[in-house]
Amino acid sequence: MLLRSISVALVAAVAMAGVSAQAAPAESGPAYGPRLEGFDYPAPVHLFKFESQGNALEMAYLDVKPEQANGQVAVLMHGKNFCAATWEDTIKALTGAGYRVIAPDQIGFCKSSKPRAYQYSFQQLASNTHALLASLGVQQAILIGHSTGGMLATRYALMYPTEVSRLVMINPIGLEDWKAKGVPSMTVDQWFAREKQTSAERIRAYEQSTYYAGQWRTDYEPWVQMLAGMYRGPGRDLVAWNSALLYDMIYTQPVVYEFGQVRPWTLLLIGQKDTTAIAKDTAPQEVRARLGNYPELGRAAAKAIPHATLVEFPDAGHAPQIQDAVALHKALLEWLASPDVSRTRRPD
User: Average pLDDT of the chain?
Assistant: First the structure.
């Protein structure tokens, strides 16, 4: 079981507060290093060392092998406010079905290097991940990306189409171009100023409203503390700076215009109560109201991607792999085991 560095008292306090984001303690909790030093992962953490843009970097990753292998490899790509550790339930589901699972922390995130100067792009992150897989002898993989990881998985599939056996996107962002729809641009310095205001209270409130469709459970709290702990630690400014650079990448590099070029068979797993749109709080109200409509966005993406299957989760928000893990993993494993057919349905 994952040993999360969070006090039982803190979890209990959140529960006793009526699971309200406003009532929960704002800044009680652990402080972690800039590479999540002090926070335990559900499996041994390995480091892939490489050179990029003049930096000596380390990409942290999990490599979890099943007891009875089916010969296939699944690569998990985390979202902006997630880490390899947050895939814990998905790793168990996949390895239980015979898949070898590789779950990296991308550069700039979690337990991986956070360079002071780095030109972040989805192409660069895809190239980094491709180099990691090559070092492990993986020539063919199933890509499973959530949120920002869905954008990254799409870019990877566009760059290395013959090396992706199947593509899975769980509530990906990048299904719309926020800039084109009217979300104002921000400089990296403005993003940095926003990120320096990060606190457990703000993280919790956002996750409750967006990730979990207004619901809250005590098992969500460790992921709040995982993020907030880095902003309490000695490397808080470096964490915030890399986060600012990454938000600039996400905002300026949409993949929605290239969905028609995606070649692998693709599964879209979409929580219908998701309303995610980066920096929509900065947009005028009339613009904000048009953003993050995931029922519409998911169906449009399924039409644009040539070989797509869409599965909708009516009561889930942005993170159905955490909020409704049983239903999501059932749909995922059924599709992975199925012949290549395109269809649209809701989970049973």
Answer: 91
